[in-house]
Amino acid sequence: MHEWLEIADGGLLLWLPQFLAPAEADEWLSWLLTEVTWKEEYLFGRPVPRLVAWYAAVGVRYTYSRLTHVGEGWHPRLAELTQRVSEVAQVEFNSILLNRYRNGSDSMGMHTDAEPELGINPAVATLSVGATREFRLHHLLRKEKRSYQLTHGSLLIMAGTSQHHWLHGIPKTKRPVGERISLTFRRILG
Ligand SMILES: O=C(O)CCC(=O)C(=O)O
Ligand SMILES: [Mn+2]
User: How many CA atoms does the CB half-sphere of 160 hold within 13 Å?
Assistant: First the structure.
């Protein structure tokens, strides 16, 4: 099966740079740009530096950074993609948080995905399409760092104890970059 990489303190990573073939990734990028209703999200009265969207079964709720998303149902294409990613991760994902980084000024600060509704050692899978952006992982206590270039069509899965010991995020860049969309798959416990 797939080769998971062990990182400090029981974290696990699976990196599949070509999860989607280039043509399939191109098709997803244009579909997501046109079919998804992208929203601005506000945190403490200020817009976060990216656009977001959320898909899950009706009524599934996810709260992060004091924002609650409630599922309004699946698009069949996204349900099918979730199934594909779930098979690789060996986890039944039931939601997707999508992030759209319009340019190098859009970003996501270092954080953990450790919300209680994800359970103790959640797997979180990130599928990327569009421009390549850096994904950073910093150990919370050690000086250890890791960095992945999340390329068009790539899949990165964090599992094991990753969310207890490692922060992750997408830094801003001054390099001119086009749009990137990440689809982050999670299992919200009922
Ligand atoms: O865009 C990414 O690759 C990271 C997204 C992320 O960490 C999140 O949505 O929690
Ligand atoms: Mn995250």
Answer: 14
